Amino acid sequence: MQLLNGATQLRVLVVIAHPDPDSLCQAAKTTACQALLQQGHQVKELDLYKNGFDPSLPLDAYKKHYTPDNITPVAEEVAQLQWAQALVVIYPVWWMSAPAIFKGWLDRVWLPEIASTFTDSGTIVPLLTEIKKIVFINTYGASWWRMALIGNPGRFFITLTMRACTSWFVSIKTVSLYSAVAAGEKRGKAFLNRISDAMKNF
């Protein structure tokens, strides 16, 4: 379905990983969802903390990881992921990477035969090929220079994982706020405006 601006309507899963409902990340989620809905996209929200998502991998689930029963404990989250044609992932960067609950979502939901599979030679084959766009929205305590010097390792590895499971050519964009602790109201509002603009140009 085409939207009034000529863009294609997408099914967008917005994943948020921040425990504080009054945080800038939560405000970013609200801004992103409102802008996407205004553009006519279909939106589902997945608030990992609010939903009480368990990022740990119990022994029983671990033993079923490579079996057809692997989705049973996370069937709802798997269905959301398979529904999506685009992802907006929002989280603060802690210790150079995503919060543990977000990493746990990757570990438990991006499963074998759901997110990807392997050939006999070990080549990874993506299965989430319906996903065409991914947007990262992140706040950092560190400065841009500090993250640039170390290569932004958390985002690098998560991006690599998502490309492997969708497409190496999937569109990936980022909206970031560095030195967020000292950002102040003006920079916080500018960050939200950049998010709104990015969603309007989705």
Automatic annotation (TrEMBL):
GO cellular component: cytosol
Taxonomy, superkingdom: Bacteria
Alphabetical keyword list: Oxidoreductase
InterPro entries registered for this protein in UniProt: Flavodoxin_fold, Flavoprotein-like_sf, NAD(P)H_dehydrogenase_qn
Residues in Flavodoxin-like fold domain copies: 11-175
Keyword Oxidoreductase part of the UniProt annotation: yes
GO molecular function, one term: NAD(P)H dehydrogenase (quinone) activity
UniProt record similarity statement: Belongs to the NAD(P)H dehydrogenase (quinone) family.
Protein name in UniProt: Flavodoxin-like fold domain-containing protein
Organism: Pelagibaculum spongiae
